[in-house]
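Provenance and format

Records in this collection were gathered into a single text stream. Each protein contributes a sequence line and a token line. The two records reproduced below are adjacent in the stream.
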Amino acid sequence: MTAQSITFLEVGPRDGLQNEKTLISTADKLELVRRSIAAGARRIEVTSFVNPKRVPQMADAEEVCAGLPDEVGVSYIGLVLNERGAERAIATRRLHELGAVCVSTDGFAIANQGQTSDESVVAAKAIVGMAQAAGLKGQATIGAAFGCPFEGEVSEDRVVAMACALAEAKPIEVALADTIGVADPAKVSRLVRRVVEAVAPTPVRVHFHNTRGTGIANVWAAVEAGASVVDAALGGLGGCPFAPGAAGNVPSEDVVYMLHRAGVQTGMDLSALIEANHWLAGVMGRKLPGMVAQAPAFPKPVQEN
């Protein structure tokens, strides 16, 4: 049975921008955060604490955190890949969650964070522990959970085993990420259902890229299979610097439109998201990939006499 509501997680300020060649100002990143909050987002991935030489767009992580608005009920998330990144994130005293990442294959794990897949699981569990020790929440994502840019197909058994190992650290959720956008709804339904059952009562989050046009369908399959948290990025921006060919995230406004039409509540304001999309398109100097913001409103607002 499809859930009546999900938790929406906006990743635009981090995953949406990290692969952009033109550096976005700290002020515009903070405005993106503010507009996301105004549209209803209560969990926002605001930046990542990574080597600025490898990901120049995230070089201002501390400055972004320093400028975050004080909003009751809003949880700010910093993505970290290692203990040094976790230390930097904790030191800002502005974040509520640390997001750790492990990777399903050795090939991508080495390219992404310089360690094997098994080592990335150990590191992710340690980061969750660091977050908890600092009074923060820790969450963990399995990257390339549906396919690897270097090794191809990924064993579902491997992903389920990784999810179980991560759950031992008691994160607030375990996430499955389709980093390069190769998932299909049938596999999503099968794998999400298996992970939900394996790690219960730990919630399962999903993160889809729309590289091959299946992202929105995969969101629906995941929600039907029991995922309770969904990532999306305003306008459908995004990509991974270490995953060749990875394209944008599923667009926030497209995800919200689909779920609301299906009776699944997200807590988001679609009109505000579309307005934010148009603002962000101006910042980026181009039309964004998302479809809903380019289409006429439906149903049309009722005109009062």
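Adjacent record:
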Amino acid sequence: MKSLLFVLCFLLTLPLPAQAADKLELGRISVSELEEIYDFYGYHGEKDYLMIPSYHYPPIFLKYFPTDFNKISEEKKRNAMFIKILAPLTMKLNNEILAERKEILEISNYFQKHQELTKEQEKFIEDKATKYDIFTRFKGYRRYAYFLDELQAKVHVIPPSILITAAALETNWGTSRITKEGNSLYKALNWHSNEGLKPIGEKEDDSYRIKTYPDIYSSMQEFALKLNSSISFKELRGFRNKILERRTPLLGTMLAPHMVWNSPLKNYAGLFDYTLAYYELNIIDKSVLDSKMIENTLPKELKNLAL
């Protein structure tokens, strides 16, 4: 008995095994360092960015593009790395949107059952209505019935291929000044403000600045919110919801024709559709994050690069 107690006490003093990380976040990093990390975790696939046949992507999240990203001379290699950087971020974003939608659906079910909401639920729905630009003068029951219907129509996933293609076209595949200096992926503007990057080449119009972000993911989040809230994309959301109601896989090529918005690029919709199809980005729409892909601990020389 004493020996058994001794063994148990000894086992309790041993350090617990380290839990596998569910994500890897990277800050300032060079192309060569990023390539080493991708090699270590086997983040390669068809065309070096399509993870088939597994459709699993490692949750490797970059805050910024590599410091020497613009020095990649080979276009094919640069574009492949651009996609590899953004693909996990798009899946992370959709997971967050789905978690937000789940809360809304749970509150909607409660509302249908009880015909009213708790004070905490009311505040949650009011905040979401503000976030997604939903307004009504209704009060009481009609107010929250309207908010919940509108939120369910707006808060839903966006195909990764849409987010990646839009970023590629707006930033010339991550090489533009707005990305390097402002972490901007979609060239959002601040009107009548001095906050942001001053446009180069504008001699007459000094009424706007190009919005900057603390990291590229923040830029992606804001653009996704625009797609899910702006009146400009109401048609896109309506078409998306019809597809999802039929329980049909939602692919970017289905929504590409609806991506007509205020871009200076000529024939934006056609260029968008061509780029998405050429790089076969629909495959990423069917993919998921897999934390098992980063179970192994990075070697010491690379571990210090993680945040």
